[in-house]
């Protein structure tokens, strides 16, 4: 039987006193790495990160596969790239969209690949999440 690793992440508290399930992670692309963080978003089918993350990793955003994403805020054009993610010691390839039209300050960690590889338990009342990998 495989032994699962359980990691507990306290929710991040913003200056307005609101709490969010934001976790630290490391992204890797062609021997470059960057430490970042992302909001776990069970409503997002794919992860979307700010363009400055791509620039730090030396990614040419427009060389990815073009995609249009729709949501509550409307529709945006982005480009899919496969990056190595490391979360709680677990490394895996994950599709990530970069978009010049994504102007939110938070990176979003969506369902594609991430949710397949982890059991995620949101403890809203206790303001933390459990991640089993």
TrEMBL record:
Residues 36-113 form the Peptidase A2 domain. It comes from the Bacteria. SUPFAM superfamilies: Acid proteases. The keyword Translocase does not apply. The keyword Hydrolase applies. PROSITE patterns: ASP_PROT_RETROV (PS50175), ASP_PROTEASE (PS00141). GO terms for biological process: proteolysis. One of its GO terms (molecular function) is aspartic-type endopeptidase activity. Keywords: Hydrolase. Pfam families: Asp_protease_2. This is Peptidase A2 domain-containing protein. It comes from candidate division WWE3 bacterium CG23_combo_of_CG06-09_8_20_14_all_40_14.
């Amino acid at each position: 039987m495989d032994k699962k690793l359980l990691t507990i992440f306290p929710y991040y508290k913003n200056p307005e006193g609101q709490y969010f399930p934001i976790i630290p992670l490391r992204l890797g692309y062609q021997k470059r790495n960057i430490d970042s963080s992302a909001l776990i978003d069970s409503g997002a089918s794919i992860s979307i990160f700010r363009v400055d993350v791509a620039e730090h990793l030396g990614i040419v955003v427009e060389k990815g596969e073009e995609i249009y994403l729709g949501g509550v805020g409307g529709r945006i054009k982005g480009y899919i790239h496969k990056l190595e993610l490391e979360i709680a010691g677990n490394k895996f390839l994950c599709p990530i969209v970069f978009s010049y039209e994504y102007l939110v300050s938070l990176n979003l960690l969506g369902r594609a690949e991430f949710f397949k590889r982890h059991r995620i338990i949101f403890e809203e009342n206790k303001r933390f999440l459990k991640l089993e990998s």
